[in-house]
Structure formats: structure tokens, C-alpha cells
From TrEMBL:
The protein's name: ArsR family transcriptional regulator
Pfam families assigned to the protein according to its UniProt record, in alphabetical order: Flavodoxin_4
Molecular function GO terms recorded: electron transfer activity; FMN binding
Organism superkingdom: Archaea
Flavodoxin-like domain ranges (all copies): 3-158
Transmembrane feature ranges: none
InterPro entries: Flavodoxin/NO_synth, Flavodoxin_CS, Flavoprotein-like_sf
Organism: Methanoculleus sediminis
Length: 164
């Protein structure tokens, strides 16, 4: 069962979780880059406003075809209680997501607020079969034991596919 891990990371926390998940599941990483190239200040001032408005960023890769994968994972930092504009764009850029088991995660300095609910709704709106969500803090990103619930959720989704 192949796993595609799609994520956006500006500070490295979401990337750290995605890399740990890839190591544990044998998944492939797809790093989404926001072409706005925010400065640290710009990320908080401009990016947070765009995240609250659910704006879509210009991203690389511009399209993400998941037809060759059995399970899709999408990870985002929390900006102003929302997924980043790059992740909003990544969800819009997905091809062949319909019916795919999907898991989401976020990393935050505090509370994820509505980030995971928003991300799950966006993916469900694209036809994904969203199986669950895991919030992680910036500190959790550096602890393999904290990432274990995410790994377990992906593995459980994998087992459910085999049973069907």
C-alpha cells in the first residue's frame, strides 16, 4: 500500500512530522512550496490574513496527481487558526483524490483551533474519504512518540484497505 504525504512547511515543524511519517510508513513526500516566499514577518502579517480568508497561494508543484497512491496524508502548519494558503492550493491542485482514504495533520505553536475541521471539509468536498486528523505542537514535531498517533492512523487506514 503506497502512501503520499503532501505538506507545506515554513519553519520546519510540519516537514519534521512529514519526514517521520514517511520513515515509519515508507511514504513518498510531496513538499508544497508557496511561491510568495514570505519573510518571517510577512508569513505572520500577510500569510495569516490570507489563511483566514482561505486564499489559495501560487504553489509548486502546481498539480498533485495521487492516482498512484492508496492513501493520502495532508499536513499543514496552523496560521491564524487555519490551513496555510499553500495547503489550500494543494487541496485544489489534487488530481484523482476521489474516494482515496485520507488523513490530515497540523502543527501549531498552541491550539489548532478550526484548522483540522477546515482541512477535512476541503478534502471531503473534493471527494476524499477522510479517515481522521491529528493535531501536533511544534514540540511534538521533534518527538517520535508524539507522532505515533499519526503513524498509527495511517497504518490503520492501510489495514482497512487490505480487509476490503
Amino acid at each position: 500500500m503506497s502512501v503520499c504525504i503532501i505538506y507545506h512547511s515554513e519553519t520546519g515543524n510540519t516537514r519534521a512530522v512529514a519526514e517521520q511519517l514517511a520513515a515509519a510508513t515508507g511514504g513518498d513526500l510531496v513538499a508544497v512550496r508557496d511561491l510568495a516566499n514570505y519573510s518571517k514577518v510577512g508569513m505572520y502579517l500577510k500569510g495569516a490574513r490570507r489563511a483566514m480568508r482561505k486564499d489559495l497561494a501560487s504553489i509548486e508543484p502546481a498539480t498533485i496527481d495521487v492516482s498512484g497512491y492508496d492513501i493520502v496524508v495532508v499536513g499543514t502548519p496552523v496560521w491564524a487558526g487555519s490551513p496555510t494558503p499553500a495547503v489550500n492550493a494543494a487541496v485544489a491542485a489534487l488530481r484523482n483524490i476521489e474516494g482515496k482514504p485520507t488523513v490530515v495533520f497540523c502543527t501549531s505553536g498552541g491550539s489548532p483551533r478550526k484548522t483540522l475541521d477546515t482541512l477535512k471539509a476541503m478534502l471531503a468536498g473534493r471527494g476524499a474519504d477522510v479517515r481522521g486528523a491529528v493535531p501536533l505542537t511544534a514540540r511534538d514535531a521533534k518527538k517520535p512518540e508524539a507522532v505515533k498517533p499519526l503513524v498509527d492512523l495511517v497504518r490503520q487506514s492501510r489495514k482497512e484497505m487490505v480487509v476490503r
